[in-house]
Specification:
The complex is a heterodimer of chains A (637) and B (247).
Chain A lengths: L14 H8 L12 E5 L3 H13 L2 E5 L17 E2 L11 H11 L6 H21 L14 E2 L6 E4 L5 H18 L3 E4 L2 E9 L2 E9 L5 E5 L2 E4 L20 H8 L4 E2 L4 E7 L22 E5 L16 E2 L1 H5 L9 H13 L11 E4 L1 H7 L1 H19 L8 E10 L2 E2 L12 E3 L17 H24 L9 H20 L3 E2 H16 L5 H21 E2 L9 H25 L23 H4 L1 E6 L8 E6 L14
Parallel strand pairs in A: 1-2, 1-10, 2-6, 10-18, 19-20
Antiparallel strand pairs in A: 3-5, 4-5, 7-8, 8-9, 11-17, 11-21, 12-16, 13-14, 13-15, 15-16, 21-22
Helix pairs in contact in A: 2-5, 2-11, 3-4, 4-11, 9-10, 13-14, 13-15, 14-15
Chain B lengths: L2 E7 L8 E7 L8 H14 L21 E3 L2 E2 L21 E6 L7 E3 L2 E2 L2 H10 L19 H11 L6 H5 L6 H12 L2 H4 L2 H14 L10 H5 L7 H15 L2
Parallel strand pairs in B: 1-5
Antiparallel strand pairs in B: 1-2, 3-4, 3-5, 6-7
Helix pairs in contact in B: 2-7, 3-5, 5-7, 5-9, 7-9
Classes of the chains: A alpha+beta (637), B alpha+beta (247).
Chain lengths: 637, 247
């Protein structure tokens, strides 16, 4: 299989313009003859569904939540980047592009990343026009803050609820089109498989989660905006419903999965407090603007923080990375926190935590300013831990947060299956091996508002309207597969609960495929995952029937896919014999513990082809070519 | 902690439903309320009893999915807290806790503690937006917005659409939910253009869905996890008056 990224020729800054001119257009009167399915209603899905409908296409949009407004983009707190240079601090499209590609440790596609930076400015305009209440300065202009991995202030925010406000903006655009009859919305509906006709994606099979009814939906193209797979670690900052199922089913139908091992571990989450825990709560990275991260200098120092003097504290990020300090990128900050905890200097009962201390900022700026900036985050922390962060430093620890890997797409955001588009976190293309803070919201909305609506039109123009019927035999066959799998899940009738299997999988992944990986560990994971999967199919306990609301069945189905996907993840991590971005292989590091990349051997995208469950997937390489930037060692010192 | 739970169980929309009692032991005070229910569900599953169904997703108080009435109060006893954020340390060892779904005529129950809140989406469809298409928006700084106006808009926009306001209101009124959206948008210049049409259409849809009217019980404000103020209901009523007078 030859991977064609379809990057337009010409200078970097002109590629997108040139490509937009070269793409086919659909006459306004003909747009109504085309239909699109959008799976997912987060930032990417909602913005795409709304924008496609505004253009005149017929759209069906599906989400597993009870309302499209609840997609997990809503959890994003800190902000959204855009190269507006409103602060006059030297920002530009090129700088945002460079920061993003450097932040991704030179493992993303130049042309995609540049385009992302280009359209970032339109996103802010669009959101303001929708009524997104971004923070303002006293003169009425938009306020900005700085974020990890950048030395300019380019992050727009709405208190600590930026994701919520952007999602509600995209939701309002979507729901307006629902009201106009241009989008048909299917909430509480889960995609369980993809349907191909003559090699093109032409529909999906879904389950109505309220009634259990299985049905088929056909369209001229399918767009997956189904988010990331961070719940493969069980504990993560994601919503509990987040899953890999839609993307993985597309993978089993032939879509290549790219760079699954690139998963971001976010440095600022509330540490684990017990076995019962269902999720880890993120504390926005924006806190690192004013909070200072430290641990005691001495191993095993268990005194309360106010009894540890300045001289006895190690502000390890400021010490190791003086120019970026507490704003070092996420992968570096997370790994540094792990290191000091592994040395026995971690804080809190478990010893897996570091302090994020606001005492200096409160002294400098006053409590009111800190309250205005982070009030809701402080309250949330207080509520969860029963500790007041205005008085006692917060305790934080890294947690699985975002997945840079995803289905392989070309420059048009189209997978190797024609007619299957993948947008937002579900694709792989823009963040390389590590994502910078406040860039996920940017990418979701860039894909949905400003990229996909053009590129899907080009596909429609090339293949023409097909008016596929969901009654075709291809749909019946896939429906039968879906029903057979559900039946199999219900027939196991074992003893061990689904959640306990998920915890077991999470333990394997966190231990061997987490912040630091090595060959022996990954090989161990590759033994343990299939064994766990086998036990799952023999001993999982799934009660009830499929013809009703059955949340146990939903969970079991998603976990069954994670149990297959986890193996692909480990295979990818084992294959990549280098340390880059969030993928840290212990064998490849300097004496000071910094990552060592291997551009000669690994400056490529690993795109994996499914070869059957339990069989080794086939690797396809997309060599990354860098025309504009020089591959430098990533340094934040 | 050892607790006795009285939980609403209802197989489906047709089933009449009933309260069931479950005992649960060794609950940690650091658990969230939903984590406590997870423990109960693991136990039920092991005994071969269908787990208690409830809506949830983000488990950090922002998605608005969780929706339980705990001891008679929507989202439980703690102010400004969603069910998922509520911790067991707010209860005492030996407590009996009653757990019910959000109930209202416009929120029919699907199963157990899961109710259908799609009426909210239909109200939003009627006018909870600014009618702008993608593309063609002016520069974001082209219209300065007073910081106070932006902050007030944000206070209203903080609504998570959970429906606790409806569940706690004796009239099952959705006024706080609708007022939050109306006020968010009317406080910004972008939303002023369609202000009259918006308030008329959203209120008409609210009535059509079977939500009641506001008679100032203020329960909605008391339970709102995002502390959306009832001053926005007053604001909405003013907007309705304006919309009625100025055609």
């Amino acid at each position: 299989m030859k991977l064609d990224s379809k990057i337009p020729s010409g200078p970097l800054a002109k590629k997108w313009d040139k490509h937009r001119f070269e793409m086919k257009l659909i006459n306004p009167a003909n747009k109504r003859k085309f239909s699109a399915i959008v799976v997912g209603s987060g930032l990417a899905g909602a913005s795409a569904a709304a924008s496609l409908a505004e253009l005149g296409y017929n759209v069906s949009c599906f989400c597993f939540q009870d309302s499209p407004r609840r997609a997990h983009s809503i959890g994003a707190q800190g902000g959204i980047n855009a190269a507006k240079n409103y602060q006059n601090d030297g920002d530009s499209v090129y700088r945002l592009f460079y920061d993003t590609i450097k932040g991704g440790d030179f493992r993303s596609r130049e042309a995609n990343t540049y385009r992302l930076a280009q359209v970032s400015v339109n996103i802010i305009d669009q959101c303001v026009a929708q009524g997104v209440p971004f923070a303002r300065e006293y003169g009425g202009m938009l306020d900005n803050r700085s974020f990890g991995g950048a030395q300019v202030s380019r992050t727009f925010y709405a208190r600590g609820q930026t994701g919520q406000q952007l999602l509600l903006g995209a939701y309002s655009a979507l729901i307006r089109q629902v009201g106009l009859g241009q989008v048909q919305m299917f909430p509480r509906t889960e995609m369980l498989d993809l349907v191909l006709i003559d090699g093109h994606a032409k529909g999906i099979v879904v389950r109505d989660l309220a009634t259990g009814k299985i049905s088929s939906h056909a369209a001229d193209a399918v767009v997956l905006a189904t988010g990331g797979y961070g719940r493969v670690f069980d504990l993560s900052t994601m919503g509990l419903g987040c899953n890999v199922t839609a993307a993985y089913k597309a993978h089993k139908k032939g879509a290549l999965f790219a760079n699954p091992c690139y998963t971001q571990i976010h440095p600022t989450c509330i540490p684990l407090s017990g076995d019962y825990q269902s999720k880890l709560t993120l504390m926005s990275e924006s806190l690192r603007n004013d909070g200072r991260i430290w641990v005691p200098k001495n191993e095993g120092d268990k005194r309360p923080p106010d009894q540890i003097t300045e001289e006895e504290r190690d502000y390890f990020l400021e010490r190791k990375y003086p120019s970026f300090g507490n704003l070092a990128p996420r992968d570096i900050s997370s790994r540094s926190a792990k290191e000091v905890c592994d040395e026995g200097r971690g804080v809190g009962e478990s010893g897996y935590g570091v302090y994020l201390d606001f005492a200096d900022a409160i002294n400098r700026l006053g409590k009111e300013v800190i309250e205005e900036r982070y009030g809701n985050l402080f309250e949330m922390y207080h509520l969860i831990t029963d500790e007041d962060p205005y008085k006692v430093p917060m305790r934080i620890y890294p947690a699985s947060h975002y997945t840079m890997g995803g289905l392989w797409v070309d420059y048009n955001l189209e997978s190797n299956i024609p007619g299957l588009f993948v947008i937002g976190e579900a694709n792989f293309s823009d963040h390389g091996a590590n994502r910078l803070g406040a860039s996920a919201l940017m990418q979701g909305l860039a894909d949905g508002y400003f990229i996909l609506p053009y590129t899907i039109g080009d596909y429609f123009g090339r293949v023409g309207a097909q008016n596929v019927s969901p009654d075709r035999k291809e749909f019946r066959e896939v429906e039968d597969e879906v029903l057979a799998r559900i039946k199999k899940l219900l027939a196991v009738n074992g003893k061990r609960t689904v959640d306990s299997f998920h915890k077991a999988l999470g333990k394997i992944m966190w231990e061997y495929c987490g912040m630091a990986r090595n060959e022996a560990g990954l090989k161990k994971a590759l033994e343990e995952i299939p064994a766990l999967r086998e036990e799952f199919w023999q001993n999982a306990r799934v009660l009830g029937t499929s013809e009703e609301m059955n949340m146990l069945l939903e969970k079991a189905g998603r976990l069954a896919d994670f149990l297959e996907f986890a193996e692909l993840f480990a295979v990818d991590a084992l294959n990549r014999e280098e340390s880059c971005g969030a993928h840290f292989r212990e064998e490849y590091q300097t004496e000071e513990g910094e990552a060592v990349r291997n551009d000669k051997r690994f400056a490529y995208v690993s795109a994996w082809e499914h070869k059957g469950v339990g069989n080794k997937p086939e690797l396809h390489k997309e060599e990354l070519e860098f025309e504009s930037v020089e591959l430098a060692t990533r340094s934040y010192k | 902690m050892n607790l006795t739970l009285r939980v609403w169980r209802q197989k489906n929309a047709q089933d009449k439903g009933r309260m069931e009692t479950y005992e649960t032991r060794d609950i940690s005070p650091d658990m969230s309320f939903l984590e406590m229910l997870d423990v109960v569900n693991e136990d039920l599953t092991e005994k071969g009893i269908d787990p208690i169904h409830f809506d949830h997703d983000c488990r950090e108080g922002i998605c608005g999915a969780c929706s339980l009435v705990i001891n008679g109060i929507a989202h439980g006893p703690n102010r400004a807290t969603t069910t998922c954020e509520l911790r067991m340390r707010h209860f005492k060892d030996g407590d009996t806790i009653t757990v019910e779904p959000f109930r209202a005529k416009a929120f029919p129950i699907i199963r157990d503690l899961v109710s259908d809140r799609s009426a909210f989406d239909r109200i939003m469809q009627a006018g909870g937006f600014v009618s702008v298409n993608t593309g063609g928006a002016p520069d974001a700084n082209a219209i300065p917005i007073h910081k106070d106006a932006a902050e007030t808009a944000m206070d209203a926009a903080a609504c998570i659409g959970c429906g606790a306001c409806v569940a706690s209101c004796k009239n099952a009124s959705a006024m706080l939910f609708v007022a939050a959206k109306v006020s968010h948008l009317v406080n910004l210049p972008q939303g002023k253009v369609e202000a009259h049409e918006r308030v008329r259409r959203m209120v008409a849809q609210m009535d059509a869905e079977g939500f009641g009217n506001c008679t100032n019980y203020l329960e909605c404000e008391a339970v709102c996890p995002k502390e959306v103020s009832i001053k926005f209901i007053a604001k909405m009523n003013r907007e309705r008056m304006k919309a009625a007078v100025i055609k």
